[in-house]
Amino acid sequence: MLRGVTEVVRSRWVGRVAVVELHRPQVRHAMDTNLLDQLIAALRRAGRAGETDAVVVTGSDGCFSSGADVSEDVDRAGAQARMAKFAALYELVATYPLPTVAAISGWCIGGGAELASACDLRIGTPSASIRFPGAAYGVPAGAARLPLLVGLSHAKDLLMTARSVGAEEAYRMGFLNRLVAEEQLLGESVALAVAMAANPGAITQKRALDERNGVSERLHAENRALRRWQSEARGLMG
Question: Is the Cβ–Cβ distance between 123 and 108 less than 8 Å?
Answer without folding.
Answer: no
